[in-house]
Design brief:
There is one protein chain. By secondary structure, the chain is α+β, with helices and mostly antiparallel strands. It is built from six helices and five strands; from the N terminus they run ββαβββααααα. A hairpin with a 5-residue loop joins strand 4 and strand 5 (88-96).
């Protein structure tokens, strides 16, 4: 890339690469050149994952066969954004990928916290924050609302835990929710996902 296309920027992590081109013609030329170079060393581009993506936004209003791609757990695609003045526009920007959201949800369910009535509330807080803080630090940097869907389930699990832990809430989901809501009002910074904005 440095020798043949010095003006074309790109990002690479291991064997995943995103190349930024100014036109479809340039993208096709760079793709073919990369394919030829890889062939020289006995490698090839992935036949399915390698694609030319049209980065559609407020300034690029055309269309292409592909208009989104996923890189390092983020899906880049057209999203509604807001200017500092409050006006909405379409931006081609990243947000946590669907696959990452599914993976986070599965991990949360695997904790089976709602069955851990042996744990104290501080122990529950420590267990959740240890993991959720990392997800928020990585996936919450761009388009925060895309991560909300993955973290909402934590509040449901906490409600179910409270029902098993406290006899007064055993038969009342409404009372358990009220317990969580009251806790979130009194100590909003207790859980990492509450601080992030995912409140009960």
């Amino acid at each position: 890339m440095a020798r043949t296309y010095p003006a074309v920027t790109f990002a690479r992590y291991a064997d995943d690469v995103v190349v930024h081109c100014r036109s479809q013609a340039q993208a096709e030329a760079v793709r073919d050149a990369i394919s030829a170079r890889l062939a020289e060393v006995g490698l090839e581009l992935h036949p399915v994952k390698t694609r030319i993506v049209y980065c559609k936004d407020a300034n690029r209003r055309g269309s292409g066969e592909f208009e989104e791609f996923t890189f390092l757990g983020y899906t880049f695609r057209p999203r509604l954004a807001k200017t500092g003045a409050g006006a909405f526009f379409v931006s081609f920007s990243p947000g946590v990928s669907r696959a990452a959201v599914v993976r986070i949800r599965r991990t949360i369910r695997s904790w089976r916290i709602h069955r851990r009535s042996d744990l104290t509330f501080p122990e529950i807080v420590a267990h959740i924050n240890l993991r959720v803080t990392g997800w928020i630090a990585y996936y919450g940097r761009f388009y925060k609302s895309a991560l909300y869907a993955a973290l909402r389930g934590i509040n449901t699990i906490l409600m179910r835990w409270a029902r098993r832990k406290y006899k007064s809430m055993k038969h009342s989901p409404k009372r358990a929710w009220a317990f969580l809501e009251d806790m979130a009002v009194r100590v909003p910074g207790m859980f990492a996902h509450w601080r992030f904005g995912v409140l009960p």
